[in-house]
Amino acid sequence: SCFGYPLSIFFIIINEFCERFSYYGMRAVLVLYFKYFLQWDDNLSTAIYHTFVALCYLTPILGALVADSWLGKFKTIVSLSIVYTIGQAVMAVSSINDLTDHNKDGTPDVVTVHIALSMIGLILIALGTGGIKPCVSAFGGDQFEDHQEKQRSRFFSIFYLSINAGSLLSTIITPILRAQECGIHSKQRCYPLAFGVPAALMAIALVVFIGGSGMYKKVKPQGNIMIQVSKCIGFAIKNRFRHRSKEFPKREHWLDWASEKYDKRLITQTKMVLKVLFLYIPLPMFWALFDQQGSRWTLQATTMDGNFVAIQIQPDQMQTVNPILIIIMVPVVDAVIYPLIKKCKINFTPLRKITVGMFLASLAFVAAALLQVQIDKTLPVFPAAGQSQIKILNLGTSGATVKFGPQIQDVTVEPLQSVNYMTFETSRLQSLNIIYGNITTTLTPELAEENRYTLGIKDVQNITNVLLSDGITSKPEEGNNLIRFINNLGESVSVTMGDTSFGTLMPLSASNYSLFPGGRTDEITAVINSVSCSASSKAFGFGGAITIVINECTAGSLGLKYFDDIPPNTVHMAWQIPQYFLLTCGEVVFSVTGLEFSYSQAPSNMKAVLQAGWLLTVAVGNIIVLIVAGASKLSQQWAEYVLFAALLLAVCIIFAIMAYFYTYIDPNEIEAQLDEEEKKQVKKDLNLNENQPEAGTQL
User: Fold this and answer.
1) The whole model's pTM is what?
2) DSSP result, 347-412
3) pLDDT per residue over 177-225, tens digit each?
4) Where are the transmembrane segments (predicted)?
5) Is 502 helix (H, G, I), strand (E, B) or coil?
């Protein structure tokens, strides 16, 4: 022992920290991996993400059955941890871009290989993490003797702290690893590192756990109470169906039909459990909203500005707000909020707390919807079918006027200024006139539908113009920027920015767009006739497209002018904090209270059944996301948020009605009555045996 604790529990706590780091680290970057590496759209990425989470919360039932009925907790943890580690390793391999990038163009040539490996890895991880979930904490509790009740209680507190520590650190670290660039043939977002580190942590967790093998107290499998409860319920239903005719008298409760085979204690305990499980029916809707932090809310963050002064926050790092707020809010709610409510003489029962938690989660999605409306206002509008867009860029030293024809307003552009994209019916825009002072020229543009163009004009002796096809059909994702250059000099120029070469640009020509990470500055170098000029770029934002015009190169200094083709993200990620705050407050009063209520209303030997039921509500909640998101067909994301908020509010009202009619019980009192009845029955049986004459005795 160490400080009065079994030495073995320190191996278990280290194991739990590493395992939770592994799981939450992988899960933090998962939806972005689906979207940006596997190139799935938002809906498919969300669907697969929630399918995986649902599977992770369905497999604990399997793990509990295997541990209690066959292998025991130790062997189950070791076996499934090996499966878990293999799954994490397969995920890391699946994200290696160079695995199938045979033509070295920076994109996988056989995406199906990466998808297949990813799905295999996720299934193995779900089996592993779900299977060991119900075993590790119970195995830790087994290490204590009966007289170590105080140490056991502290162990569970430390155990829970290790879970949150692993979750918090991994959600901070793995997005940073993902944001790095790595690769053999081409540099890409470093998903292999983001998945590889969690895989390494899971391997460490396995080694540490096995390392303490000689110190563990290993309890042999004693059968699973869930199997007994299931058999009791099954027999009662079957027996009731057999005796469904009116000639058989009704019984007080349908479970009483199991009395022919099962004792009164098991039937009474099962009744208490089913009473709580009935209240669980509306709860999955809460988890349907809660687990969208890792999917929809993370995708929402990709369209926002993550620049926090000197720190750049990655979209998937915003999930850390939840564990940070939990650490703050749990003691605040317990030590401040609840006592204040009690002083106001409000009977804030556990079921009322759960109702409030659901209401707060609904408000969180209303906040998310309002934020999404503001984000949508900043998003560019691209041309639809039958339309084209033109942006005018005046590269000259005098003002210019562009006439688009009858019924279309003329546009005047000042020197080195631009007029943002204007939308036209492609078939109607046959020609346009450009006027510089007294000089007029006519341009007959050849426009393609659903495309954007930049019209560059300049007054060099005569009017010179160039119509550039932009080729951008969507806003840059993941906070990246698209950057191109236009040569506004009279000679050819070779341009580089950072490590990227834009090639040699002829006068009044433009380069193609190149992708750069957002929130950074780079050195720009232009070479004209072997003369080099350079300048540092301005600090770019996130998610924009920028045209940089080279205006002069004198004395080694480069004159540049910047034009936003697509504005950078302007809504700050900090605006997500209110919705995280509301959701976390909801979690504190919902989740903590829910477990506490469940345990207070269930018999001591039925805790595992309620734990399985609670985890099942999480799984069903994630399945609800798949159903609602798939069936709603809403084109606007804010509308989907409102839909989820409305559904949870409706469920919240239903739960409040159910809670109103619920009668609290004391399982200890009921079990004491059962003990008393059993003692009386034993005494009665003994008296009966004493009065029974021996065989062969004559009366």
Assistant:
1) 0.82
2) ---HHHHHHHHHHHHHHHHHHHHHHHHHHHHHSPPPP-TTEEEEEEEE-SSS-EEEE--TTS--EE
3) 998 888 787 778 899 999 999 999 999 999 999 998 888 888 787 777 7
4) 44-65, 77-96, 111-132, 153-173, 193-216, 272-290, 324-341, 353-373, 608-629, 641-662
5) strand
